[in-house]
Amino acid sequence: MLSQQAIAVIKSTVPVLEIHGTAITKRFYERLFQSHPELLNLFNHANQKQGRQQAALANAVYAAAVNIEKLEAILPVVKGIAHKHRSLGVKPEHYPIVGEHLLGAIKDVLGDAATDTILGAWAEAYGIIADVFISVEAEMYREAERQPGGWKGYRPFKVARKVRESDVITSFYLEPADIEAIAAFEPGQYIGVKLEIPGDEYTHIRQYSLSGSPGEAYYRISVKREDGAEDHPDGRVSTYLHEHVQEGSLIPVSAPAGDFKLDLADARPVVLISGGVGLTPMVSMLRTLAEEQPERGVTFIHAAQHGDRHAFRNEVEGIVSERPNFSAHWIYTEPTERDRAAGAYHKEGYIDLPWLKQVAASKDAGFYFCGPQPFMQTVNRALKEWGVAAGDIHFEFFGPAGVLD
């Protein structure tokens, strides 16, 4: 239990964190990696370079300070982060290291303003928050290992098939190298993929949404090639997967994780909205709905640049065509002349609320969306403007959590 004195001190630092939060987390990662470079094996280096990880951590620290009297309010955030930690392989022994350098970063950035009282209060709070993470993650590790087909850490999978889905997206069908059973997953979840790229000092770990159906003897991930390895998130890894990982290659994989899940207990209509490679978890959700709840009303909306970059079109249309309660709608931001001639899309430009109301019909539904952050911000604003209940709005960030409001 956090002392009342510590609570009061931390609440007094909220305005400071609002101003200096990102500077503190930037300094934190500098200190962390200087002292423990081996931890670069766990972190996405590109997200570090772009500042996405620093911003996400700053938001999490700020949320903890704001809710310090009722930390249960941030438990959903804790669980989301814990899923990623379990997938990456974060262990209890990492938390004291993080605490040391987080407090050091606060002192470095704030200087004399970071008094012993302030540092002591944050040390007390960090200890409690770290214990929560360790406890939640310990249970997740146990579940991942003990579930049917589960395993500990990383398990080698063989690329059984490699399928080009569009100009920029390729699917990898992964089968366990030991030919044993694999863990089930819930549509919307992801797996961790570990790569050692020749010439790179550190291991690369990426988390990719599963785009296939639960219950298969394989996992399917669908990866967008991101060019510009030095300045684009995942460019280094996605390019390596596209160019060098072939059928027969072995890849270490962590068990499925993630709290972005389709609610199959909800019988109401569901609207799946995606932009770009954000359609991967949506395809998994669509396939599951088709197999388990074909009577449910389903609206599938996908935005792509044009037809050549539109993955899974035939797969989605095949599913929808066999189910009268399902519909699919395409938005192209830059349709080609061939797209126009073929009438290959339903809307040109960008998603907006008037059009969404036409195709979704009712706001009394479960809404799930994923895609680039600006796309997600647009969708989130539209749903809120429409009056969709907060509990019916579900989304997933690829990479560190961003801000939608």
Structure write-up:
- With 405 residues, this protein is an alpha/beta fold.
- It has 3 domains: 4-146, Globin-like (Orthogonal Bundle); 154-257, Elongation Factor Tu (Ef-tu), domain 3, CATH 2.40.30; 270-396, 3-Layer(aba) Sandwich (Rossmann fold).
- Helix content is 43%, strand content 19%.
- The protein has helices at 4-12, 14-35, 45-50, 52-66, 75-88, 94-110, 116-146, 235-244, 279-292, 313-321, 337-342, 353-360, 373-386; strands at 154-164, 169-176, 190-195, 204-209, 219-224, 250-257, 270-275, 298-304, 326-332, 347-348, 366-370, 393-396.
- Strands 4-3-6-1-2-5 form a 6-stranded antiparallel sheet.
- A hairpin with an 8-residue loop joins strand 3 and strand 4 (204-209).
- Helix 1 packs across helix 7.
- The protein is globular.
- The model is unreliable at 229-233 (pLDDT under 50).
